[in-house]
Structure formats: C-alpha cells, structure tokens
Amino acid sequence: xxxxxxxxxxxxxxxxxxxxxxxxxxxxxxxxxxxxxxxxxxxxxxxxxxxxxxxxxxxxxxxxxxxxxxxxxxxxxxxxxxxxxxxxxxxxxxxxxxxxxxxxxxxxxxxxxxxxxxxxxxxxxxxxxxxxxxxxxxxxxxxxxxxxxxxxxxxxxxxxxxxxxxxxxxxxxxxxxxxxxxxxxxxxxxxxxxxxxxxxxxxxxxxxxxxxxxxxxxxxxxxxxxxxxxxxxxxxxxxxxxxxxxxxxxxxxxxxxxxxxxxxxxxxxxxxxxxxxxxxxxxxxxxxxxxxxxxxxxxxxxxxxxxxxxxxxxxxxxxxxxxxxxxxxxxxxxxxxxxxxxxxxxxxxxxxxxxxxxxxxxxxxxxxxxxxxxxxxxxxxxx
Length: 383
Known about the structure:
Helices cover 71% and strands 2% of the residues. It is mostly helical. It has one domain. A hairpin with a 2-residue loop joins strand 2 and strand 3. Helix 3 packs across helix 12 and helix 4 runs antiparallel to helix 6. It is globular, with a radius of gyration of 23 Å.
C-alpha cells in the first residue's frame, strides 16, 4: 500500500467508514428504489418530481463543501463562488445546447436557437468543441479553475484579506452577471441556455435519466467529500487552520501563505464548477441570475448554519436551508428572504458553530451528565 492509499484509509475510523458507506447506500440505492419500486399511493414513495429536486440539493451540498474549504478552514470568505458554480454550469449547458442540433425550433444543426433568433451568421469561436461531452466536462473544471487562479494570484500576492477580498470576489461575480446578460456575449442573454433535449444520447425528460444524474451527483459529492477531507486532515490542512487563526505567525514561520491560499481557492473553484455542471442538466436551465451576488451570500449561509470547518456541517446546512427554502417559498413567498436573513443572524449570535456545534454541545452535555451520575453512584457505594 502506497502513502496516498494509506492516507485515504486513515481518513475515518471504523465507525466513520461505516457511516460514510451507510449514507451512500441510502442515497444511491434506497432513494431510487423508493421511486421505482413503490406505488404512488405508498407513504414511502418518492415521486418523480422529487428526484431532480434531491439532485439539486446534492449539487448545492457539493458547492457548500467548496465554500467550507476556503472559509471554514482557510478563513477566506469568498463571495464569488456562485460565479464558479455558474461558469461550470454554462460550460456544460453549451454542450447540451450543441447536442440539440437540428431538433431546435429553427432546425439549425450548428447554431443554437437563440443565435438564429438574434441573426448570428456563424458559431463563435469559443463555442467550438462543445459538441463533445468530454470537452465540455473538461471546460467545466478549466474555466472556473483558471478564473480562481488568476483572481487568487493577484489578490493573495498583494496580501488582500478579510472584507476586501470578499468585496473583490463579489465585484467579480456582479461583473460576470452584467456581462452574461448581454445578448452579444453569445450565451443567451437574459434567457440563458435552456430547452435541453438529451445528454450523451439519454433523454433528459426520461425518469431513468434523472435518476442516473442524481446518482452521479451523489457519487460526485462522496468523492469531493473524500478529497476535501484528505486535504484538511493533511499537513496542508493544519497550515490552513493556522492561516485562518493567525496568518502573520504562519508567515513568520516561513510557510508560503500565498501558495497555500491559492491552492485551496483554486481547488474549491474546481469543485464548485463540478457542482454547476451537474446542476444544469437536472434543472434544465442556466441563466445570468446564477451569477447574482445574493447567491454567493446564500452559500455562506448554508455553511454557517451547518457549521464552518466541519465539511459534514456544510452538507447538512445546504440540505436544511434549501429544503426550508423550497417549502417557505411556496407557503410564505413574501417573507422567505426575511426568514433567511433572520436565520443567519440567529445562527451567528446563538449558534456560532452551527448545527454541528450544537450537536457537539449536546453530546458533551450528555457525556458530562453520565460522568456526574457515575461519580455520584461511586460516592454512594464508598459511603
């Protein structure tokens, strides 16, 4: 067994691996079976509409992992991760548009419908290659990764930190939103990319394809979680925690702060791009609203609710907040944003470590109570 394999084996203890595979079994096997093998009237039935919804939550959980890597462990509050997510989504959406071919409204085998409508005469050069699945899959990583590398290189070398870095990343996101709204950018303008037909030959409207995309998303979440845990439990992870808590001391000790930040920032952008690429075929649309700065702020709320610096908490927070959002936007659409803001304030004031911190406090309280009871019984016996 090589060093890398040994490190992977030591990511969890025995109980941790059991929990990891148990959760994976439920999400990958049990959930699809409850959709396919139970009647619609059964209490345990998961409807066809719920599969892409769960897939969306899983993509958001992957995105939350990316945010937790930079904010929870390195102390970098990025408000631009919505941009990396959207760029990954656009990269894969371009492939889905090219896959439509002559089946579009205007039956043009080369140009997407929105380009025909806007009187484009030829395909822009940056659309070349997106008729291939493998090319789009690579671009979903390369585009957000290169952007993060460029922004991080200039920001971290200039020692931009704290709120200033947050403002820079938010400004980047807003600039991209404005750019993608323009029709002459060649990305569909305000309407974005939509009306997808299939992916690598599988009909996107077929339930089996939706289940396949959901399973792929869960597998991707599991792999991303292992990658993130591998990083944060390594020596680099300890350096990142030191950066978060005392960056000047880390510089004084001779560590390359710039390289450490640049690595984790770029890695998190790659993970966010993957989440966007998996998100688009399940939702069926990608438009400039995904670049909205409010979306990036919402990602930070997911991580804060679940618990910064825990990874598992980021996943839990993404599921909890988005489940609540799905419910309250239907039940109380006029007050949902106020509820979200209040949730962030309450968590910041009363649960600074999020749901995972609350669980840890309850566990410590329970163990302390049991220890006190044991001590009391021993004192009674000795008397």
